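FIELD: query
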Amino acid sequence: MSIKPINVGLLGIGTVGGGTFTVLQRNAEEITRRAGRPIRITMVADRNLDLARKITEGSCRVTDDAFAVVSDPDVDIVVELIGGYGVAKELVMKAIANGKHVVTANKALLATHGNEIFEAAQDKGVMVAFEAAIAGGIPIVKAVREGLTANRIEWVAGIINGTTNFILSEMRDKGLAFDVVLKEAQRLGYAEADPTFDIEGVDAAHKITLLASLAFGIPVQFDKAHIEGISKLDAIDIKYAEQLGYRIKLLGISKRTEEGVELRVHPTLIPSKRLIANVEGAMNAVLVQGDAVGPTLYYGKGAGAEPTASAVIADLVDVTRMHTADPENRVPHLAFQPDAMSDLKILPMDDVITSYYLRLRVQDKPGVLADITRILADEQISIGAVIQKEPGEGEAQADLIMLTHQTRERRINAAIMKIEALGVVAGKVTKLRMEELGK
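FIELD: result
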């Protein structure tokens, strides 16, 4: 007696779709042994019909109408790899309404419309699986949602955008300016022609929004995330950070505090001795701190055809194993039972407490440091370290770098305004945040 295969409809056969098709075929026997029944792609939708035909080689139906796939009665699971929030949302909602399970890599869609999508899936008793949406092939969703389920998770911090990590690694290695490295990243295919989503931190913010929901059992609230990218980062700060024993990484950070949840993306100084500080190139890494387990680190490829396909297929196997299970017995979408979600608020950036790196251009004369430390003291900010660079030949100004102890963002901003008003300080103060990430 042969077991009936599970039928998959694939929306989009670009990089990840093509990878999914290839890996599913190559490892078909292994995957069947794990899933308990064969998983086969029976229908593919893509605007580029020639490409779809070339990849599938006549092994399944091909169409340029994605709505035909989500409405096809023979399709059990829809894999959405189109991206964006427009037609992708319509297709996912339609698939759910038609009682189909959905596997997606679309972090933008889930970070913005996840609450509505998960609720619809809950009502229909279907699953929406999204391992591939965060950190490519790294099984971070499963780790947080299932592996760490005994823990009260305290914080999550991740390098979850390969493009920006590649750019920062190159800036550090070669001492080059951001613009120069970005062009190189585009030439090598690490950065898109329009790299805005990556370099301005939006992509990382989509992912940390989803991780925060999984870690703390809160609804997705992308609109409340604080987002800063790396386009304004200066090569000199990377160099000074290095001299002080730190690396600068673009981190997505979410912490549970007594006042609420921090949800932020920004360039961050991390001590060089931390494992995560040494994640270079286009690699991803996520550090999760649980009360019972302590810090755990997940590292691997965050993008690419086969790494992402690895996560898509793991979800297909999960759905295949669970789809006959009573919906009440399945793992909840956001790790916590839907009726037990928390209304912990997302903290505004002004209320966040962390440490800071400040770089100032100051006149090289006595009393300058005293004026600045007085302002910081007035705002109850204590200083951890100070480096004063000698002015260059014939220059009247020098760089002054200060590292502060933990303080509230509101206080540091107030202090910076007063410092910038001093006659002895030229231009703006550069402010970067610092995180110890464990002891």
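FIELD: remark
The mean pLDDT is 95.
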